[in-house]
Amino acid sequence: xxxxxxxxxxxxxxxxxxxxxxxxFEERYRAMMRELLKTPEEEPRRxxxxxxxxGHEVAPSAPGMPDPTALPDRxxxxxxxxxxxxxxxxxxxxxxxxxxRERADGTFEVLATGTTRVRLLSVDTSGPFLTAELEELxxxxxxxxxxxxxxxxRSFRQYQKRLAGARERSLSTAAELPDQPSVVSYLVAAAMxxxxxxxxxxxxSKDTASRLRDELKLLRAETSIIRTLPSLPASDLTRGPTSxx
Length: 245
Hints:
Blueprint: E1 2-10, E2 19-24, H1 27-36, E3 46-51, E4 91-102, E5 108-124, E6 131-136, H2 145-164, H3 181-191, H4 196-203, H5 208-227
Parallel strand pairs: 1-3
Antiparallel strand pairs: 1-6, 2-5, 3-4, 4-5, 5-6
Helix pairs in contact: 2-3, 2-5, 3-5
Protein name: LON peptidase substrate-binding domain-containing protein
Pfam families: LON_substr_bdg (PF02190)
InterPro entries: Lon_prtase_N, Lon_prtase_N_sf, PUA-like_sf
């Protein structure tokens, strides 16, 4: 099944079920939000998020010192080259905007949630913002996903504990973490301190079990490294329960 949606490139990876706060200031994305606001509130206001490949950057908001009162009008492809498809990773995630709030200066505060993985088929650059033809990707469980999810959760707790230098009782309890394998796989992929290419690889996994196997290897390797680096700074994500909401 294919769908055409507005396209929002980011320097990060969005996973299904994860919350995405956005501060929208570039004109092309402001135009996108104005268009999404035309959708009735009872209908989903959807757009697709794709990660920008290494070496590509979004257009700057203005030359010289930032001036929020003088945002230049830039085209939808600014910063992405003549063929934007080459600037983006091939698999992204649909986002459903629960909140789109316009500020007095014309910028937007947006709160969205990832829903479904999609494959990028083509990009349309003819409008005020990018749109894309996308193929929805089903999430297949794969073999032994349940058992793998249990192992990933155990390893994730050790990873959190090592990263935070915290006592076991300061971490999330079992009841506060999900047990559905696909949800576990996305939560851990988003919560781990990994570079964008690695997170992208996890998003693109052929099924849940494959993603969980990859995460189990990453967690064991990262925990081992952290164990030998006791001075590693703690991450904010370990200071409280990790949640999809």
